[in-house]
């Protein structure tokens, strides 16, 4: 993970870099640092353990002048999160400074070699090896910085996005990527560099998304020069950003997570715009239309994802099997990629990822692609790695999701997957016309129904406070809402640090029922549907053991609400769409419990938004 930023231009670099680090803090926040070359030609590095705010405090009385600099916010992989291991790292002579996002797998071997040549190491990171090698190559091969970076990267195994400063060359930043994202922003007489476009959008909307193995040289007064690590020249492709600055601010909400929960009526409206056409009675997904035959001929669909995106995939399994009558397998990317899976040429592999950068999901689709499968991706970040290597796909268009706990991206993923299931089913003739039309109608009403649920926010906030005592939670659901039980539990544990488990409701009596006592809150998604009666029995089983029952029911339900300690009603909709509604109160519940426990909601401990390492 980690976030990297760079600036070269006429302005003071430090404020731009710090602001950029704040925007990228979602990628990691255990330490931060900055390197600047001032007008006297000194290369100054300042680093601090903790969040970017700690770095700002540390640098308060330091010389932070300079028009060129690089900065980093870290999520530790190699080496504990302390000041020494924070980036940037100096080279031996302190002529060079580097920042890095990724992992250098053969760093130990490279380090041994450098030590033999007298190089010493200050940190225990893999990154320091890179900067030392670049310096060693500069000296021994008598080459310029870009060539030294290139020769070094040719010896490296692993993933990286790096940026390098050279004290002797104060008008240039050299950067490169492989497996970790890097975007160049092109302003008037200035260049920006960042892990994503969020630190750049405020200054320019012209960007270049670097490709794997690209090296870029940013020199003031010149066009960016891009070559590959094997020294092929490339013509930079300049794109226009669609992002707006207001999407990156809290807009009056105390946390990004709450803002993102409340944005869902509008984000889903955007996700469905031009796709769900109620007037024409159809759903149009261009990524599907252009590749219809691949879907129609698929004997199997494999869905691969991690975390919350995996939960969205699980919901898709129910929908695709129901509507498209095609077997579906849902795989954790991290397991799939190492399992030597059997993949056929006529398999369709669907990758789901908010960031589009998750290392395991990226590796899973690379593997499937090598075996000839057709890759369709559902991602949020435009231009990210997963959509770029996919054969086709569909963006969720929910704007930047900054809270580490995924909310608006999830509901849009589920919506996209349901749309895709309906498209396949309609084309194959495996879904009755009447049902297709009803779901289409219901889909178009989802945003207003979410707004209705959000009106219950204050009540949820109120009763959430009564659960701060809990050490454990159980979440139960069946069918389409079983993945919501998993998702509700994940939301709670990641931001409140309360242990929580999600189960298919009927599995409870095969073990977890032993945990139930009056101390144990049990959240049950008991909306109307074909397993409703069964779940009522499961609630009885909890009640008989004095568990505290919190339920999500369909409006008008009286049976379950009478059995519950706390009950939240959601509007009626097609059964396959209930997860998009039932997850909303669970997002709010997790949020308010975490706030009541005074947790760092947007940046929970140990986590990072974008998991670009294995
Ligand atoms: O960017 P991705 O959707 O590929 O990320 C996958 C998971 O890392 C992510 O969903 C994670 O589980 C979230 N923090 C959950 O809220």
Overview of this protein structure:
There is one protein chain. The chain has 20 helices and 27 strands. The longest helix is centred in the C-terminal third of the chain and has 22 residues. It folds into three domains: 245 residues, Glutamine Phosphoribosylpyrophosphate, subunit 1, domain 1; 195 residues, Glucose-6-phosphate isomerase like protein, domain 1 (Rossmann fold), CATH 3.40.50.10490; 146 residues, Glucose-6-phosphate isomerase like protein, domain 1 (Rossmann fold), CATH 3.40.50. Strand 13 and strand 14 form a beta hairpin. The protein starts with a strand and ends in an 18-residue tail after the last helix. 36% of the residues lie in helices and 23% in strands. The chain is an alpha/beta fold and 614 residues long. The strands form five sheets. Strands 3-2-4-1-10-9-11-15 form an eight-stranded antiparallel β-sheet, covered by helices on one side. 5-amino-5-deoxy-1-O-phosphono-D-mannitol binds next to helix 10 and helix 17.
């Amino acid at each position: 993970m980690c976030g990297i930023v760079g600036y070269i231009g006429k302005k003071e670099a430090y404020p731009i870099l710090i602001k950029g680090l704040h925007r990228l803090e979602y990628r990691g926040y255990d330490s931060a640092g900055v390197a600047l070359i001032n007008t006297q030609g000194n290369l100054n590095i300042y680093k601090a353990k903790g969040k970017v705010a700690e770095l700002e405090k540390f640098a308060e009385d330091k010389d932070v002048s300079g028009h060129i600099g690089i900065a980093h916010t870290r999520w530790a992989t190699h080496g504990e999160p302390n000041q020494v291991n924070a980036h940037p790292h100096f080279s031996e002579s302190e002529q060079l400074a580097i920042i890095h996002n990724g992992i250098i797998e053969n760093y130990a071997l490279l380090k041994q070699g450098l030590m033999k040549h007298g190089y010493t190491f200050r940190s225990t990171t893999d990154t320091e090896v890179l900067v030392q090698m670049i310096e060693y190559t500069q000296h021994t091969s008598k080459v310029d910085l870009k060539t030294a970076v290139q020769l070094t990267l040719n010896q490296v195994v692993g993933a990286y996005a790096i940026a390098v400063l050279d004290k002797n060359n104060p008008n240039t930043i050299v950067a490169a990527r492989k497996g970790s994202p890097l975007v160049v922003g092109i302003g008037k007489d200035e260049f920006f560099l960042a892990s994503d476009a969020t630190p750049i959008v405020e200054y320019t909307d012209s960007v270049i998304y670097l490709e794997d193995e690209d090296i870029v040289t940013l020199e003031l007064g010149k066009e960016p020069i891009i070559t590959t690590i094997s020294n092929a020249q490339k013509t930079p492709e300049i794109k226009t950003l669609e992002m707006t600055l207001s999407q990156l601010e809290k807009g009056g909400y105390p946390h990004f997570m709450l803002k993102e929960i409340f944005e869902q009526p509008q984000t889903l409206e955007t996700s469905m715009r031009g796709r769900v056409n109620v007037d024409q009675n159809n759903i149009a997904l261009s990524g599907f239309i252009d590749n219809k035959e691949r879907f129609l001929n698929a004997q199997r669909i494999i869905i691969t994802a991690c975390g919350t995106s995996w939960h969205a995939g699980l919901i898709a399994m129910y929908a695709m099997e129901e509507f498209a009558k095609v077997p579906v397998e849902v795989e954790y990317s991290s397991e799939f990629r190492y399992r030597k899976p059997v993949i056929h040429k006529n398999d369709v592999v669907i990758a789901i990822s908010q960031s589009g950068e998750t290392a395991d999901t990226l590796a899973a689709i690379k593997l499937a692609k090598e075996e000839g499968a057709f890759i369709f991706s559902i991602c949020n970040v435009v231009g990210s790695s997963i959509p770029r290597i996919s054969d086709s796909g569909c963006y969720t268009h929910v704007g930047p999701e900054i809270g580490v706990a995924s909310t608006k991206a999830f509901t849009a993923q589920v919506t996209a997957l349901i749309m895709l299931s309906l498209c396949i089913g309609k084309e194959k003739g495996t879904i009755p016309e009447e049902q297709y039309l009803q779901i289409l109608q219901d889909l178009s009403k989802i945003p207003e129904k979410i707004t209705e649920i959000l009106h219950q926010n204050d009540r949820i906030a109120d009763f959430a406070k009564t659960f701060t005592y809990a050490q454990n939670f159980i979440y139960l659901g069946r069918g389409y809402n079983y993945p919501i039980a998993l998702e509700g539990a994940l939301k709670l544990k990641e931001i409140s640090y309360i242990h929580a488990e999600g189960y298919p409701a009927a599995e409870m009596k095969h073990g977890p029922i032993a945990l139930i006592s009056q101390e144990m809150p049990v959240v049950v998604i008991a909306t109307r549907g074909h397993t409703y009666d069964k779940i009522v029995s499961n609630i009885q089983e909890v009640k008989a053991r004095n568990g505290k029952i919190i339920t999500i029911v369909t409006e008008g339900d009286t049976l379950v609400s009478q059995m519950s300690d706390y009950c939240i009603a959601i509007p009626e909709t097609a059964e396959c769409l209930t997860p998009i509604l039932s997850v909303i109160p669970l997002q709010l519940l997790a949020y308010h419990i975490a706030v009541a426990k005074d947790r760092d909601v947007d940046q929970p401990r140990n986590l990072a938004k974008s998991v670009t390492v294995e």
